[in-house]
Design goal:
This protein is of the alpha/beta class and 371 residues long. It has three domains: 126 residues, Response regulator (Rossmann fold, 3-Layer(aba) Sandwich); 55 residues, no CATH class; 149 residues, Histidine kinase-like ATPase, C-terminal domain (Heat Shock Protein 90, 2-Layer Sandwich). Helix content is 48%, strand content 19%. The strands form three sheets. The chain has a five-stranded parallel beta sheet, sandwiched between helices. Strands 7-9-10-12-11 form a five-stranded mixed beta sheet. A hairpin with a 3-residue loop joins strand 11 and strand 12. Helix 2 runs parallel beside helix 3, helix 6 packs antiparallel against helix 7 and helix 10 packs antiparallel against helix 11. The longest helix has 45 residues. Bound molecules: adenosine-5'-triphosphate (ATP) and magnesium ion. The site of magnesium ion (MG) has 5 residues, from helix 10.
Length: 371
């Protein structure tokens, strides 16, 4: 299995039985915890995070069956294997034990080797089950990723290509008969369309690379204020067109330990979104603060905001969420997913606070020092 030391909880109202089982299991190298009755078993089980429980059936007040029932009802304890301890005369109740979710039973007085062997088998089974569940979760996530990938390729990549193909076809067939003005519009549309499809492709590929662990993480110490000052000019044209005011109060002496390329991508996406979703005359603000070992950077805007019910759809590859900007700008819906991925890779977190119709605030953290 692994090197972890397993903890076995022994529940019995007869101290000699606990002692006997504890002696046997102690020799096998397990951690032992014990409870003299059902009530204390239920209160202990979570604190000690037991890997397996040996549970006596006949106990005063809360008997073994009731304890088992309670444990199986609680998702936190439902997967702990329970082996019932029964007296020879209680053999019929073994069936009830299985019905309630017990995995096995041992008849008292125990045989040393039998007890050790059954405990070992069920721990191995539990361990194998946990591994299976983990790999199932991983597969579900991978499958969602793959589905999203295909849906983006099927839908988002197809439509701009249709526009490109029909546009270039028109140029090819009727170039000489199209008026100059119409020609200019058509070429402009073709250029926009191919720029969009390229942006989508780049985001998709970058995201796919980060999913497959192929993006290198090279952290250095740098100053986020300086990085922000290189990102803002990328949007100069849109900022001017929309008369947006930019306020930057990020501490110029603040430094963070992170991969600068990744954080540059994050800032570009957040700043791009803020510009895209802020109407004429609005403002965008960059702020910083320090929270213990972390620096917190906030990008806020006075834009259109995000409805509360839609916030959970962001950052997730399995739900597509993308709106058109205040000047009709289109997006791929991958920007924030990349941001989350990159901030996570740098040991930080990202969250959103938004008021629909009023504005949004994207807050991310980064370690100030090597973690
Ligand atoms: N600052 C913001 N204000 C309002 N809505 C926002 C803001 N940032 C993101 N959103 C909402 O979240 C959606 C997803 O954002 P995201 O950056 O992931 O994709 P996008 O901007 O649509 O496309 P792109 O991949 O080109 O960035 C946006 O389409 C928009 O609806
Ligand atoms: Mg975006």
């Amino acid at each position: 299995m692994n090197d972890k030391k397993f903890t076995i909880l022994i529940v019995d109202d007869v101290p000699e039985n606990i002692q006997l089982a504890a002696n046997i299991l102690d020799k096998e190298g397990y951690n032992i915890a014990f409870a003299p009755d059902g009530k204390s078993a239920l209160s202990q089980v979570k604190n000690i995070s037991s890997d397996l429980i040996l549970l006596d059936i006949m106990m005063p007040e809360i008997d073994g069956f009731m304890v088992c029932e309670q444990l199986k009802k609680d998702p936190e304890t439902a997967n702990i294997p329970i082996i019932f301890l029964t007296a020879m005369t209680e053999k019929e109740s073994v069936v009830r034990g299985f019905e309630l979710g017990g995995v096995d039973y041992i008849v008292k007085p125990f045989n040393d080797k039998e007890l050790a062997a059954r405990v070992k088998t069920h721990l191995a089974l539990k361990y194998a089950n946990e591994k299976l569940r983990e790999s199932e979760q991983h597969l579900i996530a991978l499958n969602a990723t793959k589905d999203k990938f295909f849906s983006i390729i099927a839908h988002d990549l197809r439509s701009p290509f249709n526009a490109l193909i029909s546009g270039t076809q028109l140029l090819k067939d009727c170039y000489n008969s199209i008026e100059k003005d119409t020609l200019d519009i058509l070429i402009d549309e073709l250029h926009k369309s191919s720029t969009n499809v390229f942006a989508l492709l780049e985001n998709l590929l970058e995201w796919a690379r980060s999913q497959s662990g192929n993006i290198s993480y090279t952290p250095t110490v740098f100053n986020p204020d300086a990085l922000i000052k290189t990102v803002i000019p990328v949007f100069t044209k849109n900022i001017k067109d929309k008369n947006i005011r930019i306020i930057n109060t990020v501490d110029p002496n603040l430094s963070v330990y992170a991969d600068m390329d990744m954080i540059s991508t994050v800032l570009r996406n957040l700043c791009g979104n803020a510009v895209k979703f802020t109407p004429d005359g609005g403002s965008i603000c960059f702020r910083s603060s320090e929270q213990g070992k972390f620096a917190e950077i906030t990008v806020s805007d006075t834009g259109i905001g995000i409805p509360a019910e839609d916030i959970d759809k962001l950052f997730r590859i399995d739900t597509k969420y993308s709106q058109i900007g205040t000047a009709g700008e289109r997006g791929t819906g991958l920007g924030l997913i990349l941001c989350k991925e990159f901030i996570g890779k740098n040991g930080g977190t990202i969250r959103i606070e938004s008021k629909y119709g009023k504005g949004s605030r994207f807050i991310f953290t980064l370690p100030k020092d090597k973690i």
